[in-house]
What we know:
The chain is an alpha+beta fold.
Amino acid sequence: MGINALILMGLSIILVYVIFIEIFTIIFRLTGLTIDKARFQVISLFTNSGFTTQESELIVNSRIRRKIANLTMLSGFILNVTVISVLVNVFITLGSAQSSDVLKFFLFIGGFFIIVFILKKLKIFEYLFRGVVERVTNRVIYGSGTNIIEVLDHVGKNSIAQVQVINLPEVLENRTLEKSDIRQIFSINVLAIIRGGETNTNVTKDDMIIKDDKVIVFGKIQNIKKLFVKQQ
């Protein structure tokens, strides 16, 4: 195998590996995991390592997460086999290659790692990529037009979550937060409302949630889903 083909294959594998990790991390976040726990689960499933009994309970106790975990492990197995095959070819090819070709290979791979790292740090790139994955995932798991719930953090048994309101729940239609009574019915507190790029962190009982808002809420994740995810 020529050095150019080897470089192209190596770059493709790196790109696919990073993309798959990010995709499955987003998918697990939509099931109620924070980003740290979601990424840990994905890397553990991809590498078949890092699991503890406590962490594995997050997967085995959820039917949806079990299905996602099976798909993650299958994808990880296929990628790992491919990576091993590529690495074998790398060692064989570089062992007989000229020093200039070896240097070229590592420069391209190193440069590509830097580019991928920079892209991951760009907020606009993350926003666009995450938006596409979230829409597709919600359509597959819950159905088209479902509100997107992203867990930001856990506080005891409660969660802080951001909800993108695609379909406004009936209880919120043309009602203020006080009249909707979601605090009493669902034990949910609205911490902020994001509308048209403006963030309102001083939410009062007279505020209303409308379609296309993003809202930051605090409560039990099952109650948040009960309010914002239409039951089939």
